[in-house]
Design a protein that fits this description.
Elements (H helix, E strand, L loop, with lengths): L1 H62 L15 E4 L3 E5 L6 E11 L16 H12 L10 H18 L2 H6 E11 L1
Helix pairs in contact: 2-3
């Protein structure tokens, strides 16, 4: 009889352990779900503020857009021409510093269906020459700040526009830095 009582107690202890284990697992799942819900609601609450900030920034960008029709905003099916890497010495020459930049030219397509950059290819040597001429006068102070890099990008955009025929000047929508290294 004593043996039967021991056998009856053993399954009861195993049942209690299983019940406790199941309850702990359910509580952990509930806590994980609640935490996920909390963080998703918290990030969703910040989205309208981020959208308002982006809209305000977009308005400022539109106000600062050049009057010649070019802008750096989104273009439907743009034509992007990736240029080779440019390397230039930074003034003064004694400092032995150099600037290495990669650029891409962003053009609007005539019919918003994209296309190939064939129309600009005959002008690439002129474009590269204009960019290298502008880079030859760069100093470290000119490009050490964000504003300086933006001013350099605008100068490059003007130089590139001068290298294109009027029809293609209107299509140029932006100059994009793809690499920017100063050593």
């Amino acid at each position: 009889m004593a043996e039967e009582a021991k056998q009856d107690d053993a399954p009861k202890k195993g049942g209690k352990n299983k019940l406790i284990l199941i309850l702990v697992a359910v509580l952990m799942l509930a806590a994980g779900g609640g935490g996920g819900y909390f963080f998703s609601k918290k990030s969703a609450a910040h989205e309208p503020a981020a959208e308002a900030k982006a809209a305000k920034h977009g308005e400022e960008q539109a106000d600062a857009a050049p009057e010649d029709g070019s802008e750096d905003g989104p273009v439907v099916n743009p034509i992007v021409v990736q240029l080779d890497i440019f390397t230039a010495n930074i003034q003064p020459v004694e400092a032995e510093k150099f600037l290495q930049i990669g650029l891409a030219l962003k053009f609007a397509s005539k019919d918003n269906k994209g296309g190939t950059p064939d129309f600009v290819m005959p002008y690439i040597p002129d474009v590269r020459n204009a960019i290298l001429m502008r880079l030859s006068s760069v100093t470290a102070q000119d490009v050490s700040t964000h504003e300086g890099r933006e001013a350099l990008r605008e100068d490059i955009r003007k130089a590139v526009r001068k290298s294109l025929i009027p029809e293609h000047r209107k299509m140029l929508k932006g100059i994009l830095f793809t690499t920017f290294i100063m050593q």
